[in-house]
Write a structure and sequence with these properties.
Distance between the termini of chain A: 20 Å
Shape of chain B: elongated
Largest sheet of chain A: 5 strands, antiparallel
Helix content of chain B: 10-25%
Low-confidence stretches of chain B: none
Structural class of chain B: alpha+beta
Shape of chain A: elongated
Strand order of the largest sheet of chain B: 10-9-18-21
Structural class of chain A: alpha+beta
Largest sheet of chain B: 4 strands, antiparallel
Mean pLDDT of chain B: 88
Number of helices of chain B: 2
Strand content of chain B: 25-35%
Radius of gyration of chain B: 29 Å
Strand order of the largest sheet of chain A: 11-7-8-17-16
Helix content of chain A: 10-25%
Low-confidence stretches of chain A: none
Oligomer: heterodimer
Order of helices and strands of chain B: HEEEEEEEEEEEEEEEEEEEEEEEH
Mean pLDDT of chain A: 91
């Protein structure tokens, strides 16, 4: 059958993926620490029906080739790790990273995951955990009887708190941040968490504010870095591209109809 | 049989090839660095028609020749001759990602693949975990001294395609750099992007995955002299140069030309029908 039918269909499938990515970005426009993705396309393999340079006669070669492409494929969906805007919340257990770096949390199965979502909670043991109860690593345990309002986290990650009956603030922990050579190689596992892959490289751990790590901003949250305007424009482009590919299918179909009508 | 049928059919086949090319352009309307193809057709050889009724065969000992008067030339149809890539500049899209590079005007980035060097205009690169600049498929991007090793937030690419880094942070692989601490006090040249061009770009072979391969007719890859190097823009990617309007118009044209060729075949068929079934009644 006509190649162009499938070629145009690959274009429609590709744009569908594009819309899927855009939808996910838009639905996470208010997710703390969310990083937007971008769909990247590449052309598919080409069929060479005549190779340039093959002998045409004894003395000459075919000067020009004939190559027909087979459409498009999704090359990558790339996460863009640029900084989201910071929002002041005033909540004592909220943290944001200004600059690069991820918090490390321990999952139930003992493995690690990384996140930029700093909306931590303090559980009944006085431990800092994510909204889903995963422990922040290295562990931060606040002493018994601490005064909630006295909790303070410096830009380099030192956590101090005052215990009732004691005027001097007590150093209870030191936050660490983790960076990756290729953060776009991290794999998203949902719940605002990322896992290390072969492509991202191992985590490089360091103190906030040192060695290229970002600073920890206490009582702030990082908003998602989705730009609604950009996504809107991408959505229009994707819809039109989808539409024009469907027109190509319609044309191919009508051509097939014409061919079918040859024999009456 | 009647020649027109085959001529008409060749027209239909050629329009189908054109439709394939248009579809591919449209499918790649959003592909970074894609260059549109145009299908070029040529006429089949023409043949000399003579008046058939005049029997003017002149015989001589070595053979014979036709003395019947020439009526004119008759074309015998059309064939696809070439798929021609149009290398016009695509529009530049700002992404604010430092790993996105785009070329202004001509030229190609050189990519090292397992099958040899390949060329691309898709400058949407990533940093591999070993610190090499890679394409999305994981092939290293080449500088004039081989693969380019850099660090995130510690490199800039200038308009001439030279890559600069801050020497202070260059050596320690575990010492990453953040955006605001890099004040560029000790700048050093890492490498220059290997940007090449060809004598005959139209003969490059498209390979898929945004890659081109050189062919015998394209000529060897030539590097530019420093003044002539095409501009490199960091933080931008080049959109496909497909123009949906012209493709749309061409699609209508193809559809109608296909239809017209069908009508030719049908008319020939109905004429033959008349000849066989009506002109002579046995």
């Amino acid at each position: 059958m006509m190649r162009s039918l499938w070629t145009a269909a690959s274009g429609m499938t590709g744009q569908q993926f594009n819309i899927d990515t855009i939808s996910n970005n838009l639905s996470n426009v208010n997710t703390t620490g969310f990083k937007q993705s971008r769909a990247e396309f590449e052309d598919l393999i080409y069929q060479t029906s005549r190779i340039a340079g093959t002998p045409a006669t004894e003395l000459t070669v075919v000067p020009t080739g004939i190559q027909v492409g087979h459409g498009v494929k999704v090359g990558a969906s790339q996460k863009m790790f640029n900084q989201g805007s910071l929002q002041q919340t005033g909540n004592i257990s909220d943290l944001a990273v200004q600059g690069e770096g991820f918090f490390r949390v321990g999952l139930m199965d003992g493995s690690y995951a990384y996140t930029r979502d700093g909306s931590f909670k303090i559980d009944s043991n006085g431990q800092m955990v994510t909204s889903n109860g995963y422990r922040l690593l290295p562990e931060v345990v606040l002493p018994e009887g601490f005064e909630r309002d006295s909790l303070s986290i410096s830009q380099d990650g030192r956590i101090t708190v005052r215990v009732a009956g004691n005027d001097d603030p007590l150093l209870v922990g030191q936050l660490q941040l983790n960076r990756f050579v290729n953060p776009s190689g991290l794999s998203s596992i949902g719940e605002n968490l990322y896992k290390v892959t072969n492509a991202s490289g191992d985590a490089i751990t360091g103190r906030p504010g040192f060695d290229g790590m970002g600073k920890t901003m206490h009582k702030f949250l990082e908003m998602s870095n989705v730009s609604v305007v950009k996504e809107m424009v991408n959505m229009i482009v994707a819809q039109r591209a989808y539409e024009i590919n469907s027109k190509a299918i319609q044309t191919s179909d009508s051509m097939l109809g014409i061919a079918n009508n040859l024999k009456r | 049989m009647v020649r027109g049928i085959y001529t008409g059919a060749s027209g239909m086949v050629a329009q189908m090839h054109r439709m394939d090319t248009i579809s591919n352009n449209l499918a790649n309307v959003d592909t970074t660095g894609y260059k549109m193809d145009e299908s070029v057709h040529k006429a089949f050889p023409q043949m000399l028609m003579r008046r058939v009724n005049d029997n003017g065969l002149y015989k001589f000992p070595l053979g014979s020749f036709d003395t019947a008067p020439v009526v004119g030339m008759l074309g015998t149809g059309v064939e696809q001759n070439e798929s021609y890539t149009i290398f016009s500049q695509g529009s530049l899209k700002q992404t604010e990602n430092p790993f996105d590079l785009s070329l202004e005007d001509k030229g190609f980035f050189s990519i090292q693949t397992p099958r040899g060097e390949r060329y691309t205009r898709n400058g949407s690169f990533v940093l591999g975990k070993e610190g090499l600049l890679l394409t999305k498929e994981g092939y290293p991007v080449l500088g004039e001294n081989g693969p380019i090793s850099i660090k995130a937030n510690n490199f800039v690419v200038d308009k001439k395609g030279r890559i600069w880094e801050n020497k202070t942070y260059a050596d320690n692989a575990n010492r990453l750099v953040s955006m605001e601490e890099n004040d560029w006090d000790d700048t050093g040249l890492v490498d220059t992007l290997k940007i090449v061009d060809f004598a005959q770009t139209r003969y490059l072979r498209k390979q898929g995955s945004s890659l081109w391969a050189e062919s015998e007719n394209s000529g060897e890859p030539e590097t530019f002299s420093f003044q002539d190097r095409p501009g490199v823009q960091q933080g931008f990617i080049e959109a496909a140069n497909v123009n949906p309007v012209t493709e749309m118009v061409q699609m209508i044209e193809v559809n109608r030309a296909y239809e017209a060729n069908q009508k030719v075949i049908q008319s020939e068929d109905s004429m033959t029908n008349k000849l066989i079934n009506e002109a002579v009644r046995l």
